[in-house]
């Protein structure tokens, strides 16, 4: 069965480049699942630059809202690189507006859990590796705005779920990769108090 590899770190930590090297080293065709939306000129330029830096043979699927559906487009032997989980959560949260109600946030959390579980199940059922890139948002200060706190909480929980299912995980700091030890059963799934 396919392995899930989890790559996290702060902004500009080198996590995407590291994940791309992991994908290249598999020697397999790569399906790059992108979650960044080109909402303005700067973002469109960034997307264009990122595409130009990737190997020409890699296929790209834009999936800002439904990466699990994009995973279904992978060929059996493709290494799938999803970059990134943090933008997917952000895209889904921002679709609720600037001041979402508590009920809308709770509903979104349930949706994200189900969709992420579907993605992780699909990755586990594949014959090739799936690499998930995400941002680590829990190491900074508590965001001053409610939307920022909601984002931090939603992404933190999603990261825990994904990392708990990963065969291998790395934390990138200043371009250096630190391999994370395997977690205990139940970690990141809500099975422990305070999770």
Structure, described:
The chain has 195 residues and is of the alpha/beta class. The protein has one domain (4-77, 84-180): P-loop containing nucleotide triphosphate hydrolases (Rossmann fold, 3-Layer(aba) Sandwich). The chain is 42% helix and 19% strand. The chain contains six helices and seven strands. The protein has helices spanning 15-25, 41-53, 67-71, 85-94, 102-124, 146-165, and strands at 4-9, 30-34, 59-62, 79-83, 130-135, 168-173, 176-180. A seven-stranded mixed β-sheet has the order 3-2-4-5-1-6-7, sandwiched between helices. Helix 5 (102-124) runs parallel beside helix 6 (146-165). The longest helix has 23 residues, at 102-124. It is globular, with a radius of gyration of 16 Å. It starts with a strand and ends in a 15-residue tail after the last strand. 32% of the residues are buried. The model is unreliable at 186-195 (pLDDT under 50).
């Amino acid at each position: 069965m396919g392995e899930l590899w989890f790559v996290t770190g702060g902004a500009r930590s080198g996590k995407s480049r590291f994940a791309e090297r992991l994908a290249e080293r598999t020697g397999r065709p790569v399906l790059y699942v992108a979650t960044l939306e080109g909402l303005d000129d700067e973002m469109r330029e960034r997307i264009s630059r990122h595409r130009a830096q990737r190997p020409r043979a890699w296929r790209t699927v834009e999936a800002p809202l439904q990466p699990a559906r994009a995973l279904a487009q992978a060929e059996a032997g493709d290494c799938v690189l999803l970059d990134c989980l943090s933008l997917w959560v952000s895209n889904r949260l921002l679709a609720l507006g600037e001041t979402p109600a508590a009920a809308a946030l709770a509903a979104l959390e349930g949706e994200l859990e189900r969709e992420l579980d579907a993605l992780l199940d699909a990755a586990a059922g594949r014959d090739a590796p799936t690499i998930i890139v995400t941002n680590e948002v829990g190491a900074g200060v508590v965001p001053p705005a409610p939307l920022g706190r909601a984002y931090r909480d939603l992404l933190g929980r999603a990261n825990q779920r994904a990392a708990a299912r990963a065969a291998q995980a790395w934390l990138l700091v200043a371009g250096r990769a630190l391999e994370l030890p395997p977690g205990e059963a139940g970690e990141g799934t809500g099975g422990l108090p305070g999770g």
